[in-house]
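Quick one: structure tokens for this chain, please?
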Amino acid sequence: MSDDEMMKSVLRQSLHRGRKNLRWKLSGLDERSLRWPRTPTGFNLLGALKHMAQVEIVYFGDTFGRQWPNPGELVTNADIDLDPQADWCATESESTEYLFDLYTRVADFADEIIDSLSLDSPGRVPHWPDGRDETTLGGIMVDVLVELARHLGQFDIVREGIDGAAGLSEAAPNLPEDFDHDAYLERLRTIADRF
């Protein structure tokens, strides 16, 4: 395996792990909990899932001249002109089941493109400014991983606030076992109150 193939494999595995963890952060919640705005700017879990699907469609599809096969599922520039948050809001007709299915199909679409190109394959991101819009598959894979990691952090905090579910992943929560969280929180509050 060449260095490029190895790097592409590492990036792809990271992308798969991030997608899996994103799905896990949404599991077990009812439709209302998934849709409820959790921050003053309206961040909600289902809307963020829709956003990540749109991100991968644009970055892996449009950037490399590949069209999403179901154009009616895209959030268009016209949609954004009418509602700047259109890609962050699950409409009433977009159920959790539908958006999970969309995200799965988008992941398959992106993986097909990743498999068919080399890391140095050139692309052009249509919404990036002229002169900075040229990129490569490797660059896009890193950009999407950064975007996914950023939003996974939001998912982590929001989910913990809903029902206390926390951790890095379902298989490896990366949290101490048999830990007295109440005592830890009290210690943090005591320290903070000194300032």
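Helices lie at 3-26, 31-35, 45-61, 77-82, 96-116, 137-163, 181-193.
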